[in-house]
Amino acid sequence: MLAKLLKLVGIGLIVLCCPARAAEAPGLVLQGESQMKTGQIDAAIETLRQAVATDPGSSLAHTRLGGALLLKQENAEAIETFRKAIMLNGDNADAFVGMAIAYLHSGDYALARASLEEAKRIDPAKAPKVDELIAYIDRRESGEGGTH
Question: Does the structural domain 29-36+54-143 have CATH classification 1.25.40.10?
Answer without folding.
Answer: yes
